[in-house]
């Protein structure tokens, strides 16, 4: 089982001037990107949520997607775990007219990339930053481009799940609820 997005809470200094509803919105779209793209390639989501956490005396917001099963191609794993959240967050910023170099920087998800790289490294899959990909491996620029294409194609589903997550009690959905909202059937 993998839990995505255990990272620095959104109270870090770089977020200090971002209003809470925009932080929550970014997190909801980020997590919805993981869930929708993951479920479409056969991952089994147990739960997705955005919530407060306290680390090192700092309380802030974060998101978590919990997978019961996450199998697929190495590209699927890299896209779902490493790039889909960031791609969805960037898409919602662009759609809302709030995408700037500064907000794009806030959407960076190095923690997701690192998790994907850890999974791929454990499977002995070579990854380069830019193409061409090594034999049997991946180029991260291709992973990012693939994530953006999939997010663009599935935007209506991602939006439905993100908006439901924002409206849900305690900002939490089960994987089954998210799949139903997105119209994804097994």
TrEMBL record:
Superkingdom as given in the UniProt entry: Bacteria
Example GO BP: proteolysis
Listed InterPro entries: Peptidase_M41-like
GO molecular function, one term: ATP-dependent peptidase activity
Identification of the protein by name: Peptidase M41 domain-containing protein
């Amino acid at each position: 089982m993998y839990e995505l997005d255990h990272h620095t809470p959104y109270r870090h200094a770089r977020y200090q001037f971002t209003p809470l509803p925009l932080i929550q919105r970014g997190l909801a779209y980020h997590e919805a990107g993981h869930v929708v793209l993951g479920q479409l390639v056969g991952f089994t989501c147990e739960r997705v949520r955005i919530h407060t956490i306290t680390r090192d005396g700092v309380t802030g917001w974060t998101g978590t997607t919990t997978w019961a099963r996450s199998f697929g191609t190495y590209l699927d794993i890299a896209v779902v775990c490493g790039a889909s959240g960031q791609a969805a967050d960037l898409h919602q910023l662009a759609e809302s007219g709030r995408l700037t170099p500064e907000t794009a920087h806030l959407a960076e998800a190095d923690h997701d990339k690192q998790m994907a790289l850890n999974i791929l490294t454990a499977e002995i899959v070579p990854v380069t930053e830019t193409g061409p990909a090594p034999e049997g491996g991946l180029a991260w620029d291709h992973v990012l481009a693939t994530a953006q294409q999939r997010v663009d194609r599935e935007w209506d589903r991602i939006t439905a799940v993100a908006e439901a997550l924002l409206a849900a009690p305690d900002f939490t959905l089960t994987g089954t609820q998210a799949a139903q909202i997105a119209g994804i059937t097994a």
